[in-house]
Amino acid sequence: MTAAATRTGGLPARLARVFRLGVKELYSLRADPVLMALILYTFTFAVYSVSTGAKMEVENAAVAIVDEDRSMLSARIADAFMRPYFKPADAIGAGAVDRAMDKGAYVFVVEIPPKFEHDMIAGRSPEILLDIDATAMSQAGNGASYIQNIIQKEVVAAFPSLAGTERVSVVVRAKFNPNLKSTWFTAVMQVINNVTMLSVILSGAALIREREHGTIEHLLVMPVTPIEIMLAKIWSNGLVIVVAATLSLLIVVKGLLGVPVAGSLLLFVAAATIYQFSVTALGILIATFSSSMAQFGLIAMPLLIIMNLLSGSTTPMESMPRWLELVMQTISPAPHFVALSQAILYRGAGLGVIWPQLAILTAIGAAFFALAALRFRKALLAAG
Predict the structure, then answer these.
(1) Along the 384 residues of the chain, how does pLDDT read in single tens digits?
(2) 89: CATH
(3) Last residue in a domain, options 133, 162, 191
(4) Do 110 and 48 share a domain, yes or no?
């Protein structure tokens, strides 16, 4: 009986072959210390360090005061800049502002004009100049609002008659992240981005490893089909990533960082499993265009950078040009996984809310899988 003739059988036999091939992949992964170390690092130290180090809110910002009034009110404003938002304000002269800003010594310089308190008592509306180093973009925007509130608070405290003069009182209630901690956002998004990166790398590396070790020829004479080989690589590598991501959410994000997980973790795992089908198929597709691990890396890394930066995990999708937003939502599964992950983990959404994203993920995954299967079959025929 020929090998081609034996590549038949019912569904149970096919599933058994897929399972055994997947177990082989898990053994191969366990024998690769570099990939094991990469998985451990990516879902532990990388998540923790990025979440605690890359903050968007103002913290310990350098500020200087040009006090040309020398009054009790100006001194009160200067003393109001305190940690953890600002470092204690340094007093500098007006002539030193440009030089200090050019050197990057301060992010903010508050210039209080002469007779500021006198003008306030007289009922005038004096102006305070705020110089901002906008190269520190996130601190510049948030810090300007902080400083405005600080000055307004101190002026009202010094002149109680000014309180309540505003015609409109704005009351802000922040939902899902009431203290506006960037760590809550960064930690979860880092896990999601790492899922994308490692899923592509592991599945593609598994196929490249078969080719470089010469075991692809062994597969050609075995009673297995290209589809079965692909499914084995997808479920085995996907299982590793889903388990690692779940443990990272529980131990690192929820445990060490104290980020609350609002929704169902089981629903997130189910959605991540569907997402794995898409991105691992993409990794196999990229590997079919690569002849070595180095070439695979050169192709995969630019794609991964674009997928992560334009997925909505760094900046909102709505801030992109409309045509780019439509392109990413059509060809990339990442924006849909980010949207449903945010809905589940931040807002506690259920299946009734996220099912459109799940349906699109399934469709994109099926397209990637079909294209990868076509390419993989041609590669096996060329190798045979």
Answers:
(1) 344 444 556 888 888 888 888 898 888 888 888 889 989 999 999 999 988 877 777 788 889 999 999 999 989 999 999 888 888 999 999 889 889 888 888 989 999 999 988 888 888 888 899 998 887 676 777 888 888 888 888 888 888 776 655 555 556 777 788 777 888 888 999 999 999 999 998 888 888 877 777 676 666 677 778 788 888 888 998 899 999 999 999 999 999 999 998 889 999 999 999 999 999 999 989 988 888 888 898 999 999 999 998 998 888 888 889 999 999 999 999 999 999 999 999 888 899 999 999 999 999 999 999 998 898 888 776 655
(2) 3.40.1710.10
(3) 162
(4) no
Burial 97-127 (b: 16+ CB within 10 A, else e): beebbeeeebbbbbbbbeebbeebeeeeeee
Domain interval for residue 128: 63-162
For the CA atoms of 280, 281, 286, 290, what is the dihedral angle to 10 degrees?
Answer: 90
Whole-angstrom Cα distance, residue 356 to residue 271?
A: 12
> Among 270, 260, 127, which residue's Cα sits nearest to residue 188?
260
**Which is it for the CA torsion 216, 221, 222, 227, positive or negative?**
positive
Tally the domains of the chain. 2
Task: Specify whether 279 is located in the same domain as 229.
Answer: yes
Do 305 and 202 lie in one domain? The reply is: yes
What number of residues does the chain have? 384
> Are residues 144 and 19 both part of a single domain?
no
